[in-house]
Amino acid sequence: IDTVGKSVVVTMSAKQGAKSNIQFMYKCSISFGEGIFNRTKIVTISPYYIFVNKMDTDILFRQTRSSALADAWDDEEQAEKVDVQAGILLRAHADTPFHWPEEGNSKLIHFRINDTVHDWSGPLSIDDIGEWTIKLRNQ
């Protein structure tokens, strides 16, 4: 990553518990400084994913089949006992960096409004840059 003007994605893993690794993804870019610093290389490191909530209500999001819920999704009786609020909270009009909680699981995200009325959305790939409209179902 020594080339000026080039951006690369850096992926790192860290042990999160007995079963899984969290996967951190960052974008690294290199540029020259300005003015008297024109011979200085500036390395910028930023999160690869940033979620922005433009709504007036809090939302939750989670990775598809995270281990905390995987067993319950496979067993109907257990599914009723799972905390339906399990997920990462994103407050209204806020933003947060996102890293994959479980490296080996599929790279899909589910969203829901932080209440007891709405169910989780269907899975969504976040690899496409842009804004999305998500349809949420009532329970």
Task: Tell me what you see in this structure.
With 139 residues, the chain is mainly beta. Helix content is 9%, strand content 37%. The chain is built from two helices and nine strands. A four-stranded antiparallel sheet has the order 6-5-8-9, with no helix packed on it. The longest helix is centred in the middle third of the chain and has 8 residues, at 67-74. The protein is elongated, with a radius of gyration of 19 Å. It starts with 6 loop residues before the first strand and ends in a 14-residue tail after the last strand.
Helical content band: under 10%
Radius of gyration: 19 Å
Largest sheet: 4 strands, antiparallel
Overall pLDDT confidence: 79
Structural class computed from helices and strand pairing: mainly beta
Give the termini distance in whole angstroms: 48 Å
